[in-house]
Amino acid sequence: MGSQPSFHLSEAIRLIRPKQWLKNIFVFAPLVFAKHLFEPDAFLLALRAFGAFCLTASCVYIINDIADLKADRLHPEKRKRPLAARTLTITHALFLLAVLLALDAVVAAGMDLRYLILLVMYFLMNLAYSIKLRDVLLLDVFIIAAGFMFRVLGGAYAINVRVSNWIVLCSLFVSLFLGFAKRRGELVEAQAAGTTSERKVLVLYRVDFIDQLLTIAAAGTVISYALYTVAPRTQVVFGTDRLLYTTVFVVYGVFRYLYLIHTSSSIQNPTNTVTADAPIIINAILWIGTCILLIYSGGMIPEISR
């Protein structure tokens, strides 16, 4: 019987997947669009909300890796994960899970009750997804989309502001877009390799069907964002109608991602795609910068007497 592997911090970090924390940046959307970005108290609350979502997500990743241990060891990529590769033991993982849950409780303590309830719902929803719902056609991706909506609502509850229904709707469409793109990448890779994916729900999907869903989700993303920018309440709150101009960045981002989906061998991880593609990174920076500039300067439109 071989000796047990020792606990390595680098492997523990790999287990909790910090790169995936990028998804939680949606928590900051209400902070920016409610014009509280430069308020220290609101920023700190949003940062705590972001941290709690990150810790909660990492807890779910650990539970997933424990539950999927046997399947991961048969997967060409997932077998490199710490538990599957036996660089960490289940005991190590359970210890790390307990530490993260304790830290999560400390970070979230005293925050708005609505936020706390939503965070617990997010955790339970992801557990349900891992146990059963990931094998249900369409619902598997809608659960992922709900997670992004929870992040937006959580960010609003954390700083006690009202979030626009258009922003929630846009978050739904963009997360559906990314979710179906991920499924398409997994399906294309499985078909190219001539193997059956360990993800059971993939046998129910077809590439042409997913392409139709991607078109609908892409259109929904652009339209809902454009309608948000021209909504009367948006123009009153920001004191400008020029936020409409930022739609061009959203359109370009969607088009660029569609291009990558259809020209790359597979796109299984939207996070990796977004952080590795220079045009998408530059476009995102320009969009964020332009939004902040327009929102916090009233559209840079000087007051003109009539």
| Uncertain stretches of 5 or more adjacent residues | 302-306
Supply Rg: 21 Å
* N-to-C order of helices and strands: HHHHHHHHHHHHH
CATH topology of the largest domain: Tetracycline Repressor, domain 2
Helix content: 55-70%
Q: Return the CATH architecture of the largest domain.
A: Orthogonal Bundle
How much of the sequence lies in strands comes to under 5%
Which word captures the global form? globular
Main CATH class of the largest domain? Mainly Alpha
What's the end-to-end separation, in Å? 87 Å
Overview of the molecule:
The protein has 306 residues and is mainly α. It has 2 domains: 10-162, UbiA prenyltransferase (Tetracycline Repressor, domain 2, Orthogonal Bundle); 164-299. Helix content is 68%, strand content 0%. The protein is built from 13 helices and no strands. Helix 3 packs antiparallel against helix 7 and helix 9 runs antiparallel to helix 11 (247-263). The chain is globular and about 65 Å long.
Tags for this entry?
globular; disordered C terminus; 2 domains; 13 helices; mainly alpha; 306 residues; Tetracycline Repressor, domain 2
Describe the structure concisely.
With 306 residues, the chain is mainly α. It contains 13 helices and no strands. The chain has 2 domains: 10-162, UbiA prenyltransferase (Tetracycline Repressor, domain 2); 164-299.
In terms of topology, how is this protein built?
Layout: H1 9-16, H2 29-33, H3 40-67, H4 69-72, H5 90-108, H6 113-131, H7 139-159, H8 165-193, H9 207-230, H10 232-238, H11 247-263, H12 270-276, H13 278-296
Helix pairs in contact: 3-5, 3-6, 3-7, 6-7, 7-8, 8-9, 9-11, 11-13
